[in-house]
Write a structure and sequence with these properties.
The protein is an alpha/beta fold and 136 residues long. The protein is built from 6 helices and 5 strands, in the order βααβααβααββ. It is globular, with a radius of gyration of 15 Å.
């Protein structure tokens, strides 16, 4: 597992984009490491912006934030990993939603930690290493 890289969860991207107080808590985890986001995070952020009818400047700001990260798109290996994440959760009596499963699968497939504030969404995913500033 590489500790020189992280997958950044949608909530952390949102904190950074919105200058939320929690952005300052998570920004140190992004220094000096390669940063990746799932295509799912891009989709979630653009969906939220569209549903809230953001103007051109705010959309441009969002795209600027997203451009700081390498986006991992789906391929056959990631699709298989997503299926394993969902199936393993179900077998253990847990449920992970589709979006979170893509993000978890991305971190697992890259073999790097996931930086998230929403630990409850991921703490049961086998093999997933979480970096967070909340209790695990």
């Amino acid at each position: 597992m590489s500790l020189n890289a992280v997958v950044v969860d949608t909530n952390v991207i949102s904190y950074i984009h919105n200058n939320h107080t929690l952005a300052q808590v998570y920004k140190p985890h992004l220094l000096g490491v390669q940063t990746f986001i799932s295509f799912q995070t891009v989709a979630e952020m653009r969906y939220g912006a569209t549903i809230k009818s953001w103007g051109a400047q705010r959309m441009q700001d969002l795209e600027s934030v997203l451009s700081r990260y390498a986006v991992i798109h789906s391929d056959d290996a990631l699709v298989s990993r997503w299926g394993m994440v969902r199936a393993n959760a179900k077998k253990s009596g847990k449920q992970i939603d589709f979006a979170d499963a893509w993000i978890a699968a991305t971190a697992l497939e890259l073999d790097i930690p996931l930086l998230t504030h929403n630990v409850r969404d991921f703490r049961f995913v086998d093999g997933l290493v979480l970096i967070t500033e909340t209790e695990i």
